[in-house]
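[09:14] KT: can someone run the structure on this one? pasting the chain below
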Amino acid sequence: MKNLNRWVKSLILHNEYIDILRVKWVKRVVIHRAFQWAVIVPNLFVFWFLITAGFVGSPVGNMNISITFVWMLWWFALIAILVPFLARGWCTICPLPIFGEWLQRKSMIKKTNYQKPLGLNLNWPGRFRNIWLQNIGFLSLASFSVLLVSRPIVTSLVLGGLFIISTVLMLFYSKRAFCRYVCPVGGFIGLFSMFSSIELRVKDRQLCKKHITKECIRGSDISYGCPWFEYPGNMDRNAYCGLCFECVKACPFDNIRLNARGFGRDLLVSKGKGLDEAWKVFIMLSLAGVYVAVMQGPWGWLRDWANVFYSPPYGFALTGLNNYIFYLAIVWGLSLAIVPALFYVTAAISKYFSESKHSVKDIFTGFSYELVPLALMAWIAFSIPIIQVNWSYILNTISDPFGWGWNLLGTKNISWNPIFPGLIPYEQLIILLIGLYYSIKTGYKLAAQYFDRNVVLRGFLPQLVFIVIASSTFAWLFLG
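[09:31] RB: done, structure tokens below
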């Protein structure tokens, strides 16, 4: 307890790290060959149960466990707890790639002696070694958001489809190419995990440089090596580390640590990264606003537009499909064009004010990371009423998962009763202010990297205006 108090005090006061792997039982657990199997298999059964429920259970969303568990409980836990505090911890237990990985390795647990993995083991195409496919995939799913969160069969088709796609791709391409380059969920988890309070890093980079066999990549007698195409020796961001701990198992020098740290540190070392990540920021920021307006706003007609199968008896469009096309134009236009264009103007003004030698493109890309905290907090604020208002549906479907009238645990008849609904706007405002604080803090530190010391504030001013306007827009959407 004394050591824990000392570590926490150092972390808060001195911005230091706490190596969680120094706790012996934690280290023993994660280096055990059965660790991932033990955390994935229960999740695998849960997911296939949810998929089955979507096909055979009630078509009413709040009476089917596939909707209440995936889009209420899982989504809230993922965006509000797992990502901020465990980075890509969801990837540690995600069942989507497990069938393909077991086939590749020809083993479920034990490290096999086979020299060649099952399948073609092709290299992922160079032109797609980015997250553009994840960006388009997430936007495509977001285009059917109303159906996805209200119709169990749609959720089951999507989840089942992701299982199939991941398995097939892993029989063609090496390692976890699906997770790194295709998975639509992995894209935004990777982005937001850079804000997380945890990281996997090496202790001594010089030791990595001197050691030529690189078991952390190639594998060892007890490890397959990193399946995420990462080299721990030069890794300085969480974006593509799936926390599988294969590198911890493989390293012969015990040179890897799992650090608890302050929030948002990776956002300051993302300089020079690609436009794919910048556009992921704009997509997540834009979609947060769209989702709040559609699902929690007072504009019923907008929600009708978002439903491709709904034909309203009013409006200027002749059919529901026409309205849905307008909705798609809003979603894709905001995410891919309007918000990025406004931010590009901000970057151009920052360059003009600071007289920076950096190009507008470099400023545009680099400063996009300042929006990550705000976007993440906007999603968390959006997710709060999902739990506080709908918690009873989760308990109802635990006892009656298929909506067949069961009452297995005695929670079927718990009545709908939101938890302190009057506090929700204030909670959302507080969370937004946290995002505003970290975005301003990150933006100013980025300005210090890009601009000369005497013009840092002047160069950051346009960025500050953009952040404040974006925050105010979210506050208006939440508070009305």
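[09:33] KT: thanks! The CA atoms of residues 447 and 456 lie 6 Å apart.
[09:34] RB: yep, looked fine to me
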